[in-house]
Design a protein that fits this description.
Two copies of one chain form a homodimer. The first copy, chain A, is mostly helical. The first copy, chain A, has one domain: Four Helix Bundle (Hemerythrin (Met), subunit A). Chain A is 55% helix and 5% strand. The first copy, chain A, contains six helices and two strands, in the order αααααββα. In chain A, strands 1-2 form a two-stranded antiparallel sheet. In chain A, helix 2 packs antiparallel against helix 5 and helix 4 packs parallel to helix 5. The longest helix of chain A has 25 residues. Chain A starts with 6 loop residues before the first helix and ends in a 14-residue tail after the last helix. At the A-B interface, helix 2 and helix 6 of A face helix 2 and helix 6 of B.
């Protein structure tokens, strides 16, 4: 069995391909970007419910985790988490610019992930131990989880969030 | 290439195995079950924020979609959605009993899914068109999305939700 077997030959054997998982993730990231866009500027950094963090902090967590994970996902060389590469955004425009930079970064790193890597057990950031597929799903799930919370914030602000099934590819 | 190649031989070729996706889903379902358990009885069917549905309705949607999907996922024979098999639950205990029944149903059907099925394009319930892997991820993502919303409900009720990373296998 060759590692270079084309997708058409593998199709009966696989559940999801790397390219399909990337499209799945980027579709979710497109939806989250749409939520940031419709979120009222005056509430993005401050509005909260139930003692939770404001939308800006939920989004920053999601953004930083993706940003800082890609090198480790590809190579196993993990930086310490929370050494952000750039200053904390203070406007929605800055957040969207960071979002778009990370979109490109994910695409650029994704093609470098060796196929055998997805089943390798690693310790992300020296903390989270499991196969790489499991860690990538955690990143995606964590984004869905926090975005779902931001949907409630938006609804209580009287703003209609984007449709959950709308997954624009950026 | 044999369709019966053992997992160890396929490991470098796959991103995630059917058994791993099942464990991923059931781990999320275990977390959602934990959320239902800690949700105050007196608020489960009534408390809302922002004009949204109460927790009971969010959970019922997630539960019904899983329940009614498995036959179609396995065979391509889809029932019409919303023909619930049993009366709407009116107590949390009934919801938990339904949840546990669906947990067993998913496990029972999962082992019957032909491996080639995950990449087949189908139209779930005659409505949602895409590969079966995509539809299964939609079910999982929709659960994470609505559970995230229920986390906010709980926080505003002063109740600590279960930890997001806690994924008990039922």
């Amino acid at each position: 069995m060759e590692t270079t077997a084309p997708f058409s030959q593998m199709k009966d054997q696989i559940l999801i391909s790397p390219q399909q998982l990337l499209a799945h993730w980027q579709g979710h990231r497109g939806l989250t970007r749409g939520l940031i866009e419709v979120y009222p500027d005056e509430h993005f950094f401050s509005y909260t419910l139930g003692g939770m963090r404001p939308c800006s902090a939920l989004i920053d967590e999601v953004l930083q985790m993706a940003d800082q994970s890609m090198q480790g996902v590809v190579s196993g060389d993990w930086p310490s988490f929370s050494e952000g590469e750039e200053p904390q955004a203070t406007t929605k425009e800055q957040v969207l610019a960071q979002w778009d930079r990370v979109t490109e970064k994910i695409n650029a790193y994704w093609s470098q992930i060796p196929h055998s890597r997805f089943q390798e057990v690693d310790k992300a950031f020296g903390l989270y131990e499991g196969p790489i597929y499991w860690f990538l799903l955690y990143l995606i799930d964590n984004e869905i989880h926090h975005r779902g919370q931001a949907y409630v914030y938006l609804r209580t602000l009287g703003v209609e969030p984007p449709a959950f099934w709308d997954r624009p590819q950026l």
